């Protein structure tokens, strides 16, 4: 299967997970944010699906750029610019290489540049960074994703809306880390990570 | 949830259409966007753009018109507008003298407005901005997203709007905005939570007799939960917190705003203002040169109030606050 097809399949998995788990993501966000992470992402992936149905793609760059622009314009909040910047950054990188770890590594750069977050701040970066590291070593599997996600539970938020809670943010999974976990699970399921 | 709505995800569009229809002499909705722009003829002055999540009405569209904002960009409820919409707003406000953005300090707002600014610069529109962070309930430290932008933003709109109307340049407006922001202090409390129509249930829970000090305008947590007290004691808590930040002395000039959070009647807001007067005017001997009470920066149906103080560094600010405007919500 061509890379573009695998990525489209992966995005289908991602949208299904987001849509199915919309209430769960909202619930995670209610605990430490404003309770709409699931609703906002669901609106975004629905708009991406509509776009992908109308369009056909023969290269990753166009695909990523469209996904990124739709997410930026439909999701809102902080998640829109963050997921959007990841895809726009991957769109640029895909002109150099379609190697999965270099793509996702530039996606991570897009997120950290936009959000100015580092690891350990209880954000989506805490899933993205270990997942990208594992991709580089060829060791990304479900257990890597699970433990990265779980690690956000004991962290204290110092970025985003959850940071207003200080110590009270400890004990909750970060909603952006959860949606990012769905994103990497979808890559595994669609075989994007298979060489 | 009991609300006068149709589809929860259509609330923002329906609201903007109703607003633009009711006040069509003042504002118009830019087609296919969530942008509310004023109907005035071009003035050749700096454009002033604000915006943010919906649910804070009359902010922000209620301040669009002569003497205040050129344009307001609405996001989904409690969610920042997106860069493409903000870009449309910037274009609608641009009259060749540059566009100034008023952003409240929330992670999402800052990122989306920054992206919009980058896009506008690609189209050769000169853009500058201020990030308002007046909420003193939050410690300003590197361990948080910093102080939030709340009701003080409305004073920012009024002062910058009057300055832009009087022909101030983009550079002058930027300098003024920074000076105002450095002298702006707000603090809020909630008696009951807000329900976002898209979420369908209250954003947090409070017991019947419980209040929360330091709450944010989307129900972000405050600094303490206590039993309900008489208005006078609530006012004392606010004033003691504000005094630590504003370091005032007798006869210092201040503008003061008691702001309703959405579900608190004006009756209670005036009672609260009366207690603020006793503490600040009689007690601290401050010169409260400008006073305002009402719903300006709400949180949907949250019950509660916030208090904003602006230390007047320059008497011109008093003129700016008093300058006439033609807007829905001032």
TrEMBL record, chain A:
Q: Name one GO cellular component term.
A: cytosol
**What residue ranges carry the coiled-coil annotation?**
none
Q: Which UniProt keywords apply?
A: Glycerol metabolism, Kinase, Transferase
Catalytic activity of the protein: dihydroxyacetone + phosphoenolpyruvate = dihydroxyacetone phosphate + pyruvate
One Pfam family, short name:
Dak2
Could you cite one Gene Ontology molecular function of this protein? glycerone kinase activity
| PROSITE patterns attached to this UniProt entry | DHAL
| Biological or metabolic pathway of the protein | Polyol metabolism; glycerol degradation
Q: Write down the InterPro entries for this protein, in alphabetical order.
A: DhaK_L_YcgS (IPR012737), DhaL_dom (IPR004007), DhaL_dom_sf (IPR036117), Dihydroxyacetone_Kinase (IPR050861)
Instruction: List residues of the DhaL domain.
Output: 5-189
Q: What is its EC number?
A: 2.7.1.121
> Which GO annotations describe the biological process of this protein?
glycerol catabolic process
Subunit record text: Homodimer. The dihydroxyacetone kinase complex is composed of a homodimer of DhaM, a homodimer of DhaK and the subunit DhaL.
Function field = ADP-binding subunit of the dihydroxyacetone kinase, which is responsible for the phosphoenolpyruvate (PEP)-dependent phosphorylation of dihydroxyacetone. DhaL-ADP is converted to DhaL-ATP via a phosphoryl group transfer from DhaM and transmits it to dihydroxyacetone binds to DhaK.
Q: What PANTHER family does this protein map onto?
A: TRIOKINASE/FMN CYCLASE, TRIOKINASE_FMN CYCLASE
Q: How is this protein named in the record?
A: phosphoenolpyruvate--glycerone phosphotransferase
From TrEMBL, chain B:
Which keywords accompany this UniProt record? Kinase, Transferase
Q: Which GO terms describe its cellular component?
A: cytosol
PROSITE patterns named among the record's database cross-references: DHAK
Instruction: Show where the DhaK domain sits.
Output: 7-330
Give the matching InterPro entries: DhaK_1 (IPR012736), DhaK_dom (IPR004006), Dihydroxyacetone_Kinase (IPR050861)
The record's GO molecular-function terms, alphabetically, read: glycerone kinase activity
Please name the GO terms of the biological process aspect recorded for this protein, alphabetically: glycerol catabolic process
Q: Which Pfam families match?
A: Dak1 (PF02733)
Q: Does the keyword Kinase apply?
A: yes
NCBIfam families according to UniProt: dhaK1
* Name listed for the protein in its UniProt record: Dihydroxyacetone kinase, N-terminal domain
């Amino acid at each position: 299967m061509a890379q573009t097809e695998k990525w489209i399949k992966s995005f289908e998995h991602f949208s299904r997970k987001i849509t199915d788990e919309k209430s769960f993501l909202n619930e995670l966000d209610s605990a430490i944010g404003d309770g709409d992470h699931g609703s906002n992402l669901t609106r975004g992936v629905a708009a991406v699906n509509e776009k992908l149905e109308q369009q056909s793609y023969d290269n990753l760059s166009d695909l990523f750029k469209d996904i990124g622009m739709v997410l930026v314009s439909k999701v809102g909040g902080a998640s829109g610019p963050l997921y959007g910047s990841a895809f726009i950054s991957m769109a640029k990188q895909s002109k150099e290489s379609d190697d999965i770890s270099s793509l996702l590594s530039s996606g991570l750069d897009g997120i950290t540049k936009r959000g100015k977050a580092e690891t350990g701040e209880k954000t989506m970066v805490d899933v993205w960074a270990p997942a990208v590291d594992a991709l580089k070593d060829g060791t990304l599997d479900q257990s890597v994703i699970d433990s990265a996600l779980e690690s956000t539970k004991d962290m204290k938020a110092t970025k985003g809306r959850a940071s207003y809670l200080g110590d009270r943010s400890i004990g909750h999974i970060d909603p952006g880390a959860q949606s990012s976990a769905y994103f990497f699970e979808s890559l595994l399921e669609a075989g994007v990570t298979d060489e | 949830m009991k609300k006068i709505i149709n589809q929860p995800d259509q609330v923002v569009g329906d609201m903007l259409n109703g607003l633009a229809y009711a006040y069509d002499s003042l504002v118009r909705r830019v087609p296919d966007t969530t942008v509310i722009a004023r109907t005035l003829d071009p003035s050749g002055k700096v454009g002033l753009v604000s915006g943010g999540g919906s649910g804070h009405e009359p902010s922000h569209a209620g301040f669009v018109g002569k003497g205040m904002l050129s344009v307001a960009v609405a996001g989904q409820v409690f969610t920042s507008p997106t860069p493409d919409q903000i870009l449309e707003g910037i274009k609608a406000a641009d009259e060749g003298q540059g566009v100034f953005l008023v952003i409240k300090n929330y992670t999402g707002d800052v990122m989306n407005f920054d992206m919009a600014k980058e896009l506008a610069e690609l189209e050769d529109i000169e853009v500058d901005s201020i990030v308002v962070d007046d909420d003193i309930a939050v410690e300003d430290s590197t361990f948080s997203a910093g102080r939030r932008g709340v009701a003080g933003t409305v004073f920012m709109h009024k002062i910058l709007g009057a300055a832009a109307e009087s022909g101030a340049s983009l550079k002058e407006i930027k300098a003024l905005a920074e000076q105002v922001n450095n002298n702006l202090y707000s603090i809020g409390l909630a008696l009951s939570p807000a329900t976002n129509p898209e979420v369908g249930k209250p954003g947090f829970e409070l017991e019947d007799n419980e209040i929360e000090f330091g709450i944010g305008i989307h129900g972000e947590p405050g600094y303490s939960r206590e039993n309900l007290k008489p208005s006078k004691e609530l006012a004392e808590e606010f004033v003691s917190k504000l005094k630590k930040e504003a370091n005032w002395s007798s006869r210092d000039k201040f503008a003061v705003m008691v702001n309703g959070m959405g579900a608190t009647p004006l009756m209670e807001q005036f009672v609260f203002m009366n207690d603020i007067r006793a503490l600040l005017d009689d007690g601290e001997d401050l010169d409260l040169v400008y006073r305002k009470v009402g719903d300006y920066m709400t949180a949907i149906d949250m019950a509660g109030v916030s208090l904003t103080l602006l230390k007047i560094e320059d008497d011109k600010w008093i003129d700016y606050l008093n300058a006439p405007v033609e807007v829905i919500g001032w």
